[in-house]
Amino acid sequence: MAAHESADLRGLLEGVVAETGLVLESVRELQRGGTPVVMVVVDAADGVRGVDSDTLAEVSRAVSKEMDRADPIDGEYVLEVSTPGAERELTETRHWRREIGRVIRVCLRDRSEVTGRLVAAGEESATLDVDGEAVTISYAQVKKARPRVEFGSEE
C-alpha cells in the first residue's frame, strides 16, 4: 500500500515537534507486511543545517509519548522518525536558504538543467554560481532541485 499524508496526525504532532525546535516536514501512514507504519519526517528550522542524533532521539521520544497519549491508531503500529537526508528535494524557501554554499542540481520546467553552487536564496528566486557566472532562477521555473553530496570538499 502506498504511503499517504495524514492531516490528523500532522495536527497532533506539529506542536510536539515544534517544542523540540524542529519542523515537521511530513507524516505518512502506510502498511508494511500488514502492519501499520507511521513515518514522521522532521527537519531543522530555517537557517540551521541538519539535525544531530541527540535531537532526533529527543523528538522521537516526544512523538512516541504523544502517540501513546492520544492513541490515534487502532492496535499495534511501527513509528519511524527520521530526517529528509542530505539530498532532499528543495521545495520551500527555507530549504534553499539552508543549502547556501552547496552545489545544487536544478531541473527546470522547460526540461533544461542547471548545476552550480548556491550563493543566494530569496523569497522568489535563487542564485547559483555556474562556472563563475551568476545565474538567477525563479522558483516558479523549478521542476525539481536537490543538493549534491560533495566528497573531499574543503569545508
UniProtKB/TrEMBL annotation:
Keyword Magnesium belongs to the record: no
Domain Ribosome maturation factor RimP N-terminal: start-end pairs: 12-87
Keywords: Cytoplasm, Ribosome biogenesis
Subcellular location: Cytoplasm
InterPro entries assigned to the protein according to its UniProt record, in alphabetical order: Ribosome_maturation_RimP, RimP_C, RimP_C_sf, RimP_N, RimP_N_sf
Pfam assignment, any one: DUF150_C
Residue intervals of the Ribosome maturation factor RimP C-terminal domain: 90-151
PANTHER family cross-referenced by the UniProt entry: RIBOSOME MATURATION FACTOR RIMP
Family per similarity comment: Belongs to the RimP family.
Function, as annotated: Required for maturation of 30S ribosomal subunits.
The protein, known as: Ribosome maturation factor RimP
Organism: Schaalia naturae
Lineage, uppermost ranks: Bacteria, Bacillati, Actinomycetota, Actinomycetes, Actinomycetales
Gene that this sequence comes from: rimP
